[in-house]
Structure to design on (199 residues):
């Protein structure tokens, strides 16, 4: 899953939201470097990634792509599922997306940008998200097209992700069906994880 789904999983707890982004930049065992509530957000992010990577529906989504794209299927699914979540936000989530994003940006500003000891890379990503309101961009197809192309430039090997949006568009209906099934399971998983990991 990509940023939007991870932030929704931590909502409305600011520390879980912050940990959901920090997890992208912190590897290995957690050693108490960050506040415990933020580290709980990192653990939640990791649990979601493991759940999503092993789920039969996300694997089916990745296999829907034609062979040149299949190697990058999990990357594409992460972004496409966030696109579906943003486009159909009111069917799955509350509060409204704009209000949710305001709350997320406030949490990122407070817990990451204004806090000591946070990696520079995390602070830069958080600042860009806030300045460009990029979470809301997931609703827009040009944003998804650009995101896939940009990810392609970050990979070492030559890849077809600059054509990833057209490949997604060919399988849009089936992929949305997959997303709708998966997101129900994800919400149940997150609710159980949070109940089991309350401080």
């Amino acid at each position: 899953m990509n940023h939007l789904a991870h932030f929704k999983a931590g909502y409305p707890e600011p520390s879980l939201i912050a940990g959901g982004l920090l997890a992208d930049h912190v590897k290995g065992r957690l050693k108490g470097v960050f506040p415990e509530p933020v580290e709980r957000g990192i653990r939640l992010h990791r649990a979601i990634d493991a759940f999503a990577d092993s789920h039969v529906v996300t694997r089916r989504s990745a296999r829907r792509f034609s062979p040149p794209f299949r190697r990058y299927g999990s990357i594409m699914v992460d972004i496409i599922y966030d696109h579906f979540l943003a486009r159909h936000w009111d069917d799955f989530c509350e509060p409204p997306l704009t209000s949710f994003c305001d709350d997320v940006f406030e949490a990122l500003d407070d817990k990451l940008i204004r806090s000591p000891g946070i990696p520079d890379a995390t602070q830069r990503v958080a600042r860009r998200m806030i300045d460009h309101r990029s979470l809301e961009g997931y609703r827009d197809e040009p944003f998804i097209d650009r995101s896939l192309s940009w990810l392609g430039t970050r990979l070492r090997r030559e890849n077809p992700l600059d054509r990833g949006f057209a490949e997604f568009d060919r399988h849009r209906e089936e992929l949305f069906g997959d997303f709708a099934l998966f997101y129900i399971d994800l919400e149940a998983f997150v609710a159980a994880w949070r109940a089991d990991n309350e401080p």
